[in-house]
Amino acid sequence: METENITRVSEFLLLGLSEEPELQPLIFGLFLSMYLVTVLGNLLMMLAISSDPHLHTPMYFFLSNLSFVDICFTSTTIPKMLVNIQKQSKVITYEGCITQMYFFTLFGVLDDFLLTVMAYDRFVAICHPLHYTVIMHPRLCGLLVLVSWIMCFLISLLHSLLMLRLSFCTVLEIPHFFCELNLMIQLACSDTFLNIMVLYFLVGLLGGGPLAGILYSYSRIVSCIRAMSSAQGKYKAFSTCASHLSVVSLFYCTMLGVYLSSAVTQRSQSSATASVMYTVVTPMLNPFIYSLRNKDIKGALKRFCGFTGIKRKILLRLKKCP
Asked: Could you give the angle at the alpha carbon of 265 between the alpha carbons of 260 and 267, nearest 5°?
C-alpha cells in the first residue's frame, strides 16, 4: 500500500527565504544587486589578471580560476531564485533540481580544493622561495587544477547518481532557495542509508582533508616567518598570504556556522537564510578581499580600466570620422 504513494515526481517547490509577499521585491532587489556585484567583480579580476603579463604567475593563475568558479557557484542558485520571484512561482523541475544540485556540489567542492592548492602555493613561495619557480612550474599548476576538476566532477556525479535511485512521496516542498543535497535526501521515501553514509563520509573527507592541508601549510608558513630576521621580510611574507587566509577563514567559518546553527535550531528556514553567507556573500567579497591590500591587483585593474577607456575613446572618434 505504501508503494502507491511513492511516485516518480516531475517537480519540486522551492519555498525560498520567505513566503511573505511584501518581502519578495526586497529580496529580489537585494539578491540581484549581490549577484551583479559578484559576477562583475570576479569577471573584472579575471580580465585584469589575463591582461597583465606581470600577473601571469601561479598565485594569480589560481586566483583567476577561483574567480571563475565563484561566478559559476553563484550562478547555479541565484538566477533560478530571481526568476521564481519574478514569475511568482516556486516550481523547479525534477531534472532541474538534480542538475542544480550537481553543479552546486561541483563548484562548491572545487572552491574548497582551489583554496587548498593556493595554500600550498603560498607555502612553497614563503618557505622555499629559491625553488619556487622550479616547483610551481606551469605544468604542475595546470595539473593541480585539472585533478581538482576531475575529482569534483566524479564526486558530484556520485551524489547525483545516488539521488536518482531515490523515490519521493507527496511532500515535495524544499524549505530553501535551491536544491540542497541534505534536504533532498530528507524528502525521499525510499531507503536513504547509502546516500547518508556517502554524504557524511565525503563531507568528513572533503571538509577535513583540505582543511588539514591548509592548516599544515600555514603552520609551516608561520614557522618560516618566525625564523626570518628582518621585520620587513616578515611583513612582506605575511602580506602575501593575508588575503588568502581571510578568504579561507570566511569560507570555512560561514559554512561551519550554517551547519552548526541548523543542527542546533532544527529550523530549515533559518538554515536557508544563514546559507546565503557562503553561497552569495563569500563569492561577492572575494574580489574585494584580494584587491584591497594587493598593489599588483590594484595596478592591473587601473591599467585595464584605463586601456578600456582609451580604446572606447578611439572607437568613438573613428565612428565620428566621415
From this structure: 110
> 91-93 and 11-14: which strand pairing?
antiparallel
Tell me 187's DSSP state: H
Q: Which residues contact 86 (CB under 8 A, 6 or more apart)?
A: 28
CA 115 – CA 237 distance, rounded (Å): 18
Pair 16, 84: CB distance under 8 Å: yes
DSSP helix/strand/coil, 11: strand
Are 97 and 184 in contact, with CB atoms under 8 Å apart?
yes
d(CA 218, CA 234): 14
Tell me whether strands 91-93 and 173-174 are parallel, antiparallel or unpaired.
unpaired
| 135-169 residue pLDDT tens | 999 999 999 999 999 999 999 999 999 999 998 87
Distance CA 319, CA 209 (A): 57
- Half-sphere exposure in the Cβ direction for 274 (13 Å, CA): 19
Q: Any idea which residue has 590594484 for its cell?
A: 298
Task: Output phi, psi for 12, to 5 deg.
Answer: -125, 170
DSSP secondary structure, 218-242, as one string = HHHHHHHHHH---HHHHHHHHHHHH
- Three-state SS for 197? helix
Q: Describe the chain by its helix, strand, coil percentages, rounded to 5.
A: 80, 5, 15
- Whole-prediction pTM: 0.88
Nearest to 250 by CA among 217, 283, 289, 282: 282
State which residues of the chain have pLDDT below 50.
1-6
- Strand ranges in the chain using DSSP code E only, listed in sequence order: 11-14, 91-93, 173-174
Please state, in angstroms and rounded to a whole number, the distance separating the CA atoms of residues 322 and 320: 6
**What DSSP line would sit under 80-130, residue for residue?**
HHHHHHHHT--EEEHHHHHHHHHHHHHHHHHHHHHHHHHHHHHHHHHH-GG
